[in-house]
Design brief:
Chain lengths: 427, 427, 427, 427
């Protein structure tokens, strides 16, 4: 359930125009991200955690058809009645759905048919908006649908990266992207975090997902937060110090995971002729030690922090430092599609480059209650077994994230642009 | 290793012309079979046993490039040096290869690039043939390559059928194909099989795979072979008699398999509103009780035979009856793409419609020795754990099979057009 | 790492006597719990999560040999040098060890040999204590060893229960135990929980495990806590209302778990002739609706709470209500070996009967740092992926638990005596 | 279904006495083999393929109770009605049974109770025999039961060996057994096998299992059979020649198996300090190069034969050479419990030391029909997916096997005493 922005509750022609503009922009952006990929590329599911890009194009369309058109369009009929079953992701209340691990088997409808569906739904949503008959609640759902589609834009990039990485040809998604800069990283500074009673969570002004609220009080002990993300060079020092071979650095489940999977480096690192190479959305190239390390699991982030004599921040600690800071970092709009070396910002990379694992398990805030109905399944039912990540990444659309934004993944997940920001107790 | 036909050892312009004609025809036939499928359809691997159609198009091309061009073309260079790794199937002697279950992840090279590769190899093989410089042994390998490609033509159909069946839309490969005929099946007659000392196996005249020889003597007790395949209606009677619930009818491993997989009917049978429906390459339609049952495992064929008071034939029994009989049955050239009701032939369906499980484990004939080198891996190394099937199917190219032809699959395999012909001891 | 009690730091004859008494009592208690089980019963590991009872007898002995005798006994030599490998549980710093899932294969040493080892270690530890030469730190480790052994006493009961439950004969561990009382449960009352800034965690007086501290401040919103555990009758109403069939009641991972495992009732519930029967340590008998439900996973506890219009407490909420309350509840010393119907206590069952799932993920308290060395592995490395349970159970030795005690298990675990206490936000 | 010996059909006091003697001897022998093992040793199932020794003691007793007493004893009542469920192995016609992989969880009934059951059944069977009222068919079943129990005697040894091998202490079953002799192996000679029309299979005189008949004609091409088994030294040469690293030596399924399991030597071979050590029923000791290699899978036997320029014999070839030869080889009655170096016999080791893999898949002979009823499940339903082994082993009771005896295991099975005898085509 979204926490609608005030804008979403406005009405009148200006509001409609703004909605139509935002809708067009987000929908177009998704298609632009898919454009470098062939129909074959967009068809394949490279692992159960990932989805085919065609599926993302279809599922985001289903979201608008099912949650915006169906309850609001007079005489509604679906573009194709079978698509609800095929492209519902996990909404039990909406009905049964195609099993997640089998999404890649759906060679029909074709990409062309999915694009026709997109056009049809775009036209009909626009008609609803232009007609001005979109009720308040539907405007809120429309806004949720746009934020939802932005989340899938990020997944288009991370899922395509995973697929291309499985190909021995190591093809580039966007040749020329993700180049090394030659710049060095600034020294890591420790920013003081306030102790005492603080407030965290979204205050209701502007859009936020339901899991970001209610805003509430939390007591913090004094702490410090690192001014930038851990770099590849720093992580390499951990590896060279036997990081992946020293059980004392790892959580029990982490030690089990690295042995089970045979991990001895972040995902997409490859040793070639004695040097480390990196697979990026621009293809394979040498490791740049100044760039932030990413594609690490929670276990690796935690072990690195222990090795470094520090720890991961809690999500509350992260938020109270980041909330007042200036947004900084590479986003998808920069079309670099890879984390960049930290710049001079006081709190660098807090709004881009790579998501930052926190030591906080993903759980409901005090007083949290999901909405009734299907949209209540958006966030709440995942609040077990996952860890919170904060910030944003080089694959996140600009403006999508916020200081209160709570991303979440399972501890062993590595295919997102997930990195490390350190914290420590105040002396 | 092929057992080359005499034609393969001929030389001169007529032989070259014939070779060129055969080569063109087989290569074109593969592409025609792939044509109804989109690039997306041809991309996906629906299970580890199956391969993407694009992969079949590429692998058959690799076979000619690697085994015909490489050793015979002056100044040979591969079309793309990386394709050898990607499209080698199981030839250890040629080098490492992409893991079989991951074939569907190869979205690059694209279908278009594979088709360019096909054209390049076709042109170069033709140049070799036309130049008349193809040595004897290479002519034999060329003939093997054509028979190899025909085997993959059958897999194009069975693998595509499996993929399309996984789609809840149940799309047709060829709308209009596989229609029910309304004809009834002729009564089953028992043909007498000779006892005594007989000869089986290929005698070396014309092409055969190496596993079909040497021709050798075998002693048989008198037996009888059914004049046609078991029909869907007959199989339905077995099911209605509790066939899948009576442990006494099953081999131990078969009983375990049907419980593990939850099988209670052949593959592609679906119960809809109380009636049985069938998924075919022409889409879903009602079951025709007069058609041969197919897509059954060895276990189901064996259990049915036990229920019917009969047994499966040995491959030798099958061969001595089929060898002198007239070839009969639906093949891929009929473009029906589904088994048809038996006709009036004395030994119906012995050269088409559905492969016929025998009770013979796939093993080397006395005196069998695979060739040295990579082509020795063609057949011999699979001689453990599989059962022999005889005949041919509605997906087999006409003229591909022979009475001595030995097809082989694992006992639980069901995605081939595999059916049942009964045998029994003479009274 | 233990947080030693002041007593552990005392010295002199009185302290030695007290230590010797406590040591003897705990060691004897373990053997008394094992006594009803035959050597065969004590040999078997019924699942990877459980251990053989013989292994518990040996591992607790290894703990004293390795952590108390080895560093303190002059001229120390192990009873058997191979036992360190066999009976180390998870201490990476001590060295490699026998794989956990294979513990049940160790038919040698025999139970008799393990009992000889116990006697030898008992004798030698007593000699150390009596000699008065036990340094402070060793006295702390001794106390830790006793608390460690008490934890394994609980596992002896839960692991034996699991083993016996796998036997179709449903044998009793202690015939006559776990009888139904015929009493009714008192009505559930809601106790007010204080909001505001509170302190939680162990304050260092008396023994505690390291994960219980440091004591620290937490801000709580006002809430209410149930006066007793959820009963079997109440849980049955949830089941009869379709609890296991309504996806809206479950976390995503919980819904997946109940479908994967086919759960439709708590562990050890069996439907016989239309009525619910329970397997207990006293054998099988009818369900008593007034008793606390137990052997539920976190997922089931969470779903039940949602169905009941309530939620699970956080561990902080639980602690601030329980800390000042009178300890109440059935423990192992009562030899009932099953949760009993709640009595009249203001906060019933807060120190016995069944562990109580909280909604708190098991994580380090602010400022927590595990000790250096092997004993630092005791608790800290498990702080990921598990949920905190509070209270104690009918299998916990009396006096072992505390209001600050943090038990932890994985969300799907059910073989512990784990039950449900509800909480809700203050109106 | 047994093929009863003529003796089984005799009657009169002498026949009764002989039956009573045989019954007592076989039953006593089983208990003698179990005697060196503690109740704990006899309790554990070390893998799904193996069974606890206590289970073997119970299951063989169930066989007599169910198949001899139940149909013949007036007023029959089972010793314990629950034991039928617990100790039926795989007879679907008798009723449901405890799942095979969970046999090790049955700590009740205790070993003592099982021994009481044995005594009770022994007493009652003896009463039947002595009373002279055992009808012909029951005498045949009694004889089958004795041969059945002898098969389980062999499994007591092989299953106990597997269990003890899993223990890092490597305990001996019988200290002093399985010692190396210091003798050398005689040179391998090639014995000529007759070509032409031969007869194989049991002729009905004396006891045989149903799968050994009917006797029937087979045509063989001329061949040669090795005079003795392959030795450890010869196998070591294969290993040192890269046997486990050369894909060209292996069947496809064998190559997959050795990579999946990480096999690089026979089961129970351990490399210690650069030399090969062997785990035997007498404990661990150095490899003796003159002894027969055993505990190899079919895949290893087949690969070795290919490396050696030979092949495995068919079961028919094996039988026509072995049938007229003098029985030779170490059996369980020798209490060596390990294969011994070949002696001077013309066809050494054909009736002991190690079972010999043949290249014949286990299949029914022409005209084979299992009996009606439960005993028809004895052999027939396993005739798929397994390979025939001939001969006997050092764990087979003397007199149990015959030249027509067909043992059968799955290609990857290694825990039996399975070795290699080579064959080759006649020049």
């Amino acid at each position: 359930m979204p926490r609608g922005s005030p804008a979403a509750r406005e009405s009148g022609p200006a509001a409609s125009e703004e909605r139509a503009r935002a809708f067009a922009e987000v929908r177009r952006a998704t298609e632009a991200l898919a454009a470098p990929l062939s129909a074959e590329d967009q068809q394949v599911q490279s692992m159960p955690d990932a989805s085919p890009v065609k599926w993302h194009l279809a599922h985001t369309t289903w979201f608008f058809e099912n949650f915006v058109l169906l309850p609001n369009e007079p005489g509604f009929a679906p573009f194709d009645p079978s698509f609800g079953y095929l492209f519902n992701s996990y909404y039990e209340a909406v009905g049964p759905r195609h099993p997640r691990p089998l999404r890649g088997l759906l060679t029909r409808p074709s990409l062309g048919e999915v694009m026709e569906w997109r056009a049809d739904v775009d036209r009909r949503v626009n008609a609803l908006i232009d007609g001005g008959g979109l009720p308040d609640v539907a405007a809120g759902v429309l806004e949720l649908g746009l934020n939802h589609e932005q989340q899938h834009q990020e997944l288009v990039l991370t899922d395509a990266k995973h697929l291309l990485s499985q190909n021995p040809l190591r093809p580039a998604y966007r040749p020329g992207a993700a180049q090394a800069s030659g710049r060095g990283a600034p020294p890591l500074r420790w920013l003081d975090g306030p102790g005492g009673l603080v407030e965290v969570g979204h205050d209701g002004a502007g859009f936020a997902f339901d899991n970001e609220g209610p805003r509430h009080r939390v007591w913090l002990e004094p702490f410090q937060l690192a001014s930038r993300l851990v770099t590849c060079g720093e992580y390499l020092a951990f590896m060279q110090d036997g990081g992946y071979r020293r059980s004392d650095l790892w959580l029990y489940a982490g030690w089990a995971a690295i042995r089970e999977h045979g991990w001895d480096a972040p995902l997409y690192w490859e040793r070639r002729d004695g040097a480390w190479s990196l697979f990026t959305l621009g293809g394979s190239r040498s490791l740049d030690p100044a760039e932030p390390v990413c594609h690490v699991s929670y276990f690796e982030a935690d072990a690195y922090a222990r090795w470094a004599g520090a720890r991961l921040p809690t999500e509350d600690e992260w938020e109270v430092v980041a909330a007042p800071a200036a947004a900084d970092g590479t986003t998808a709009d920069d079309e670099r599609f890879h984390p960049a070396v930290a710049g001079p910002a006081e709190l660098a990379q807090c709004a881009g480059d790579a998501w930052q694992w926190t030591r906080s398990a993903y759980a409901p805030y005090p007083g949290y209650a999901p909405a009734a109905g299907a949209l209540g399944e958006y966030n709440g039912k995942f609040m077990c077994g996952q860890m919170v990540l904060r910030g944003a990444s080089c694959a996140t659309p600009r403006g999508h994230a916020r200081p209160t934004y709570r991303n979440f993944f399972h501890p062993p997940d590595r295919w997102q642009f997930s990195g490390i920001r350190l914290a420590r107790d105040a002396a």
